[in-house]
Amino acid sequence: MLFTTPRHWKPRWKYRARGYLWSMHFSGAGRIIIEERNPDTKETSFSCLEESTGTPVWRDMSFDEPWWIGIEDVTQRYIYFHRYRQPDMPQRLGVTACAVETGRVLWERPECAFAFALEDELVVSREDFEQAVFLVLDAAAGEVKSTLNPSDPELVSRKAGLDERDRFAGFLYPDAYASPEQMPAERRDLLHRFAPQETVVGNVDILSHRGRLFLAWHEVMEPQLQGTGIPKTKNEGSVAGEVGSWRIRQRMAGIDADGKVILDLVLLDETSAPAPDSFFVKDEQLLVLQGRTTLLSFDTER
Q: Is 4 part of any domain?
């Protein structure tokens, strides 16, 4: 549930998935690639959003393999998907390239495994007579440009051109505190404006941006046993020994430099397990995952 008052921020845009929002990948050119999964039906689909507005560029792309598939990497123009050597096994095999702007499949290499991507080239590995070799592929067509062995200086040179820092440019992530006791006193006092100390469980995530403070935490929903500070479980009279046995909810708040509340959100209304990584800043957008299915964007440039 999203609670707003006239002083609370309202979302710039909202995207509601048809399944769980499993992962998000930013192209670096104004697009967000969304992976959505339905654990009940074991179905996976992919969508592309315009980063500034949340408008779908295309939506609900799927493959013949409904579940054992995932996103390996996203560049400005291409999305690379992987499959698996066999279901229930973690070893990835197969590369499928799609266009970011259309979602159209460009080419497939089922015999190869992803290594790393540059903007116009893709490096994959392939087993040849029980020895791995690396292929440099043209990103647009999947054609082999050269073959390299693992110790080839050219392979090292190409990998050196991959600057991981570029991938995280513009991103700000919250600091995670294992408990309120580990937080600075002023931040702990701020948290307790929203939740009594004895109700907070698990990590507390805090992010400072443009003089504002954003917090997310989990709090116990069950009534507590008298004098113990330990919540009851759903079984009458029993005592919860782990977070997973409690009924908890996840909340988020935002406070401006004057101490005014600008956000008050319930991110998960009822859950038995904490949900980390629920918000971050990308450039001038605060992106928040609500209810595992909805992505909210708030404008921080205000």
A: no
The domain tally of the chain equals 2
- Residue 231 CA, distance from chain mean position: 30
Residues 102, 78 contacting (CB under 8 angstroms): no
The torsion angles phi and psi of 102, rounded to 5 degrees, stand at -120, -20
Whether residue 251 sits in one domain with residue 136: no
pLDDT at 227 over 80: no
Please state the pTM of the whole predicted model.
Answer: 0.88
- Given a contact cutoff of 8 angstroms between Cβ atoms, the answer to whether 94 and 108 are in contact is yes
Question: Quick one: 161 and 210 in the same domain?
Answer: no
Contact 188, 201 (CB under 8 A): no
Residue 263: Cβ-neighbour burial (10 angstroms; 0-12, 13-18, 19+): buried
User: pLDDT, tens digit, for every residue of 104-146?
Assistant: 999 999 999 999 999 899 999 998 877 889 999 999 999 999 9
State the sign of the Cα–Cα–Cα–Cα dihedral 141, 60, 297, 179: negative
Residue 179, domain extent? 174-276
Which residue pairs from 177-182 have beta carbons closer than 8 angstroms and sit at least 24 positions apart in sequence? 177/203, 177/204, 177/205, 177/206, 178/203, 179/203, 179/204, 180/204
Q: Which two tokens mark 122?
A: 């893709």
Domain end (from 130, 152, 167): 167
Cβ neighbours of residue 89 under 8 Å, at least 6 residues apart? none
Residue 146 lies in a domain: yes
Closest CA to 269 of 237, 243, 291, 238: 291
